[in-house]
Amino acid sequence: MRLLCVLLLSCNVIVANDFKALLDTINSASDSIAKKTIVDSFMLQNPVLPLTNGTECVFMFRGNADRIIVTGDHKQWSANGDTMKRIAGTDLSYIMNTFPIDARIDYKFINGSNWILDPKNPLTCAGGFGPNSELRMPGYPQQPELIGNTDIPKGSIFDTTFRSSSLNNSRAIKVYLPPGYSQSQQYPVILFHDGLDYVNLAKAPAIIDRLIAMNKMRPIIAVFVPAVNRTSEYAGNTMNTFHQFIINDIMNWVDKRFSTTANPEYRAVAGASNGGNIALYCALKSPQIFGKVAAQSSNVINSIMKEFDVYPPLPITLYADIGTYDIPQLIPLVKQFKQVLEQRGYVYMYKEVNEGHSWGNWKAHMNEYLESFFPPMPSSVKSVENKPLITDLEYKIDSLAIHLTFRLTIPIKGMTLLLMDIKGRILSESLLTAREQGDLQEHVLISSKLPAGHYFLQFRSEQTMFTYPINIQ
């Protein structure tokens, strides 16, 4: 009896500091009864598993099983995975791993032919094939924007169905409207590919609600569009037809049905994996519609990589990320894409995260591009009812100049006004002197008649930058 008491007391210290020492204690116990007592005490003191300390992690399973395998993002979901070791004379199996201190992975146990959740881990994460257990290492950042709160204002969801005659298919889409939505205010817009997965698996509406309530982003409208023939539409031979469907059908309808801003600086498109590829394609082909694009763990196909690499930078801002446990073929593609963006002088954000190719990863980092793309209005501008720096822009074009009228909502020290084509080439540059708020007129001189097509007027100052599309017919 005295021996058991010593073992139990020592277990309190050993478990907290050194799992290997615990193994030695169990292995040195005199019989199976003593071993079971130590294991029982350990499990009582550690109701939540796996154990983590620094970069070390211990997965454990208790029960009668011939073989327990741990697989997940870190093993590319291979059925071979890591095989746990049974502690002799007990029903406790374990395996020790090391991960970066800020890692987060999805994983499961394989017991025989059954893929199961870790029974001792309450953390789960939605995936495309059902929930997975979730490992968060000690340095994984806290994410208050993901914490549910029943007291914050909630947006509403509008459902409708679209049919595309060119694609010969139909799909249901969802439109998120922010709390307090009003037709008297113009809202930024973001369109998500794999839209229903962003709703159901990434919980995008709840995250947007939370970020708005925390004043980390301004109210926006979000459009969630699912794929029907995903590979073909997102990275195959119907990409351009699908892109035209997005621009001509869905976005035209959104702009007519809801109160949106036409400024591409406040219009974004987002997606993950192949969905990130089509998001890049939509921004590449229609920067007058989407001035921001987020591509998470993206399969950047060669034709898109080349187009970003050939032309001067388009007036679009990009977010791209990749996981260290992502699909191996995607990691070099995204890193190459980052180099292209840097070499071509794009405005972009890039992150490498210690996570896998999973909705847990994409969900956790949505806030980073949402907050960057749609920052809350600064206090100095709130008095103008959340309007941008430039409003009521109108223009007329003749053979010599573009004649502009607009309203300036706050005073500025000075602005540079650029005229750019759809490939980002600067056609004209004017330095505007200091201006007080109010109605203004400016003229952009052009050396020759511009061919029909889409162009951009970009206002730059020390305070901000706004880009407006114009169409010359």
Write the layout of secondary structure elements.
Layout: H1 2-17, H2 19-28, H3 32-45, E1 51-53, E2 56-62, E3 68-72, E4 82-83, E5 85-86, E6 92-98, E7 104-111, E8 114-116, E9 124-125, E10 132-136, E11 156-164, E12 169-177, E13 189-193, H4 195-200, H5 204-213, E14 221-225, H6 230-235, H7 239-257, E15 267-272, H8 274-285, E16 292-296, H9 302-310, E17 317-325, H10 330-344, E18 347-356, H11 359-373, E19 390-397, E20 401-408, E21 415-421, E22 426-432, E23 438-445, E24 453-460, E25 465-472
Parallel strand pairs: 13-14, 13-15, 15-16, 16-17, 17-18
Antiparallel strand pairs: 1-2, 2-6, 3-4, 3-7, 5-6, 7-8, 7-10, 9-10, 11-12, 12-14, 19-20, 20-23, 21-22, 21-24, 24-25
Summarize the structure in short.
The protein has eleven helices and 25 strands. The protein is α+β, with helices and mostly antiparallel strands and 473 residues long.
Q: What is the CATH H-level superfamily of the largest domain?
A: Alpha/Beta hydrolase fold, catalytic domain
- The number of distinct β-strands equals 25
CATH architecture of the largest domain: 3-Layer(aba) Sandwich
The first-level CATH class of the largest domain is given as Alpha Beta
Strand content: 25-35%
Cα-based radius of gyration, to the nearest Å: 27 Å
> What is the CATH topology descriptor of the largest domain?
Rossmann fold
Low-confidence runs: 1-16, 379-387
Distance between the termini: 94 Å
Structural classification: alpha+beta
DSSP helix count?
A: 11
Rough outline:
elongated
Largest sheet: 8 strands, mixed
The mean pLDDT is 87
What fraction, in percent, of the residue positions are helical?
A: 25-40%
* Domains (count): 3
